[in-house]
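User: Hey, my collaborator sent me this sequence without any context and asked if I could get a structure. I don't really work with proteins. Can you help?
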Amino acid sequence: MAEISQAMVEQYIDAGANGATTADKGRALEDLICYVFAQVPGISITRRNEMNVFHSEEIDVALWNDGHADGFFFLPNLVLVECKNWSSSVGSSEVSWFDTKLRNRGLNFGVLVATNGITGDAEDLTAAHSIVSAALREGRRLVVIGTHEFLALADSVQLVHLIKEKLCDLAVRGAIV
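Assistant: No problem. I've predicted the 3D structure and written it out in structure-token form, which is a compact way to encode the shape of the chain:
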């Protein structure tokens, strides 16, 4: 179990909130993701801000998961993370685009980190929530994490638990909450 420094998390969130440009804000959120996920045993950051060979899709963060027993043993080896440090909720078109990136790579799991969540209602499966539900029907699991959730994490065990809970909610409810 590795400690997650709340001071570091707050520093990254503040840098993202006060960034001079959208690039600065996005980089701060990516830095936060890299810091927090690297605390999980068996996780390494393999790529950041990489374009595919066609120069049509960018991946914000790619994680390699060794499947450590104290880590994400229940997740695939490759995990893509999309970061959206927006002042509003992320809409269905952006969630759909991330789902398309996963589908184009034959991946069945991805993490969308959205500072202010996604649009729509989880119970009614409206807006972006409908995209998450549709992906699930096709065998892809999209987990959405808000930056406020990182503020509640004290260690890597809690991050692993958070992802497990989100996956359980997705499987049982057919939507993320």
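In plain terms: The chain has one domain: 6-173. You can pass these tokens on to your collaborator as they are.
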